[in-house]
Design brief:
Elements (H helix, E strand, L loop, with lengths): L3 H12 L13 H4 L1 E13 L20 E12 L7 E9 L3 H5 L16 E12 L5 E9 L21 H6 L3 E10 L4 E8 L13 E11 L2 E11 L8 E11 L5 E18 L2 E17 L4 E12 L9 E15 L2 E12 L4 E2 L4 E2 L1 E12 L1
Antiparallel strand pairs: 1-2, 1-18, 2-3, 3-4, 4-5, 5-6, 6-7, 7-8, 8-9, 9-10, 10-11, 11-12, 12-13, 13-14, 14-15, 15-18, 16-17
Length: about 375
């Protein structure tokens, strides 16, 4: 399965202005507002059998030897697809994995304690397509980040791998609160600019603001290239030490059976870590490669390999280089039910993974994941 969310998300700015006109003036509200649902449940097993029953440096699949409702999501929206349209979208979610990790500060995450519960409003924004040129689109509110190759699973898109990469979990934000402005220059080129409070924040932790951008280029129907960036102060009560990430992603659907993906990035933050002579800068780099193979119409095999260097410990809290390889078989039972497995091997150049007694340089995990999509 090619990652529909990436294709749809990056091409959205190109396509919304070209959508065929539709007269909605004579329709009832319930005919133009759509409702969708999504559910994900999983069980994880860590062969290290860590004493704290936690998978080291995994994002949403952090619990070892637990059955979990990762997320139950309800989405209500009115799409804005052509010039002059207005719309909105609200994603409500509850669960034991995703909400407590991606919840934003100041909404369902306490800004002082940093704790979050099992409920979140993942997205809540309004949209308007101004009748300027091909259609200048404005989205204002809380929405998922434009950064990254992988996404937070939802009804309108999920990743080929059941677990998330280190790049997804540690190198970029999950959500943003602010304004997104997008414009389709042509069928091949679109751009976005973002002005926001910061990374994963509804209540800003300082007086500075963060800016971001995305340029998406489709040189051929089966190829999408994107350049992403984000820049701004992210430390509490500090408007001077800036964090920045620059990222290039690529997706190539080679045929109906094979697709390839690539995610590369560089991040830097001033005064990010405590050093011998005060706070020092931190840098992080990473690359991930993806292969999707459709064996049959219902069965596919998805592979990922990745390296994430965090030598200063600015993102993971430990100076290290993390690597992983993941294999994810997927069985599409029908259009609403997807069953996935996930076998993943992680390793580091330091002893950072918990085991039954002490620490190790590696960990092997297995996961079963069920998706219900409507």
């Amino acid at each position: 399965m090619v990652r529909r969310a990436l294709l749809a998300g990056l091409a959205a700015a190109m396509l919304h202005a070209q959508a065929p006109p539709s007269d909605q003036s004579d329709k009832k509200w319930y005919q133009i507002v759509t409702f969708n649902g999504f559910l994900s449940g999983s069980y994880n097993w860590n062969f290290n059998q860590p004493a704290d029953r936690t998978n080291g440096f995994h994002v949403f699949d952090f619990a070892d030897r637990y059955w979990k409702l990762d997320v139950a999501e309800a989405v209500v929206q009115k799409a804005a697809s052509k010039k002059g349209d207005w719309g909105f979208r609200v994603d409500l979610e509850a669960g034991q994995s995703i909400p407590e990790i991606e919840a934003a500060y100041g909404l369902f995450r306490d800004p002082d304690s940093g704790k979050a519960g099992h409920f979140d409003i993942q997205q809540a924004f309004v949209s308007y397509v101004a009748p300027i040129g091909k259609g200048l689109r404005f989205d204002g509110g809380k929405y998922v980040t434009h950064m990254g190759y992988e996404v937070i699973d939802g009804y309108d898109g999920w990743n080929d791998n059941a677990t998330r990469s280190f790049l997804f979990g540690y190198a970029i934000p999950f959500t943003q609160t602010g304004i997104r402005i997008s414009y389709p220059f042509s069928d091949k080129l679109s751009a976005q600019v973002h002005f926001m409070d910061g990374w994963d924040e509804v209540t800003d932790n300082n007086r500075g603001k963060t800016a971001g951008f995305q340029v998406a280029y489709t040189p051929a129907p089966a190829v999408i290239l994107t350049l992403n960036g984000i820049y701004g102060p992210e430390q509490k009560e500090d408007e001077h030490d800036y964090r920045q990430v620059w990222e290039l992603t690529a997706l190539w659907k080679a045929s109906g059976r094979f697709s390839f993906g690539l995610d590369t990035l560089y991040g830097h933050e001033a005064a990010a870590v405590e050093g011998y002579e005060g706070r020092e800068q931190g840098d992080w780099t990473g690359a991930a490669g993806y292969l999707h193979t459709a064996v049959t119409k219902k069965f596919s095999l998805n592979l990922r390999g990745e390296v994430f260097s965090d030598r200063s410990g600015a993102r993971t809290g430990v100076g290290q280089t993390l690597k992983e390889v993941t294999a994810t078989p997927e069985w599409r039972i029908d259009k609403h039910v997807i069953l996935r497995g996930d076998v993943r091997f992680d390793w580091s150049d330091g002893e950072v993974f918990r085991k039954a007694n002490g620490y190790a340089r590696q960990q092997l995990t297995a996961m079963i994941n069920l998706l219900l999509v409507d």
